[in-house]
């Protein structure tokens, strides 16, 4: 059953990559939102 374990490991790596992208995206959105707040501040 080594094939199944290897397959699950590959899926785990894919989820890690997707998680990284989502975290980075959220970080960038947060930075952009803060920059807009600063620009709009009187």
Report on the architecture of this protein.
The chain is an all-alpha fold and 42 residues long. It has one helix spanning 2-40. It is rod-shaped. 0% of the residues are buried.
Question: Would you summarize the structure shown here?
Answer:
93% of the residues lie in helices and 0% in strands. It has one helix at residues 2-40.
Helix/strand layout:
Elements: H1 2-40
Profile the largest sheet. Answer: none
Please compute the radius of gyration using only Cα atoms. 18 Å
H-E string: H
Number of separate strands:
0
Quickly give the structural class.
mainly alpha
Shape call: rod-shaped
Q: Span between N and C termini?
A: 64 Å
Assign a percent range to the helix content.
Answer: over 70%
Binned strand content: under 5%
Poorly predicted runs: none
Number of helical stretches of at least 4 residues: 1
Mean pLDDT across all residues, rounded? Answer: 83
Descriptive key words:
42 residues, mainly alpha, 1 helix
């Amino acid at each position: 059953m080594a094939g199944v374990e290897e397959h699950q490991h590959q899926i785990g790596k894919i989820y890690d990559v997707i998680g990284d992208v989502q975290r980075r995206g959220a970080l960038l959105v947060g930075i952009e939102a803060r920059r807009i707040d600063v620009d709009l501040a009187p």
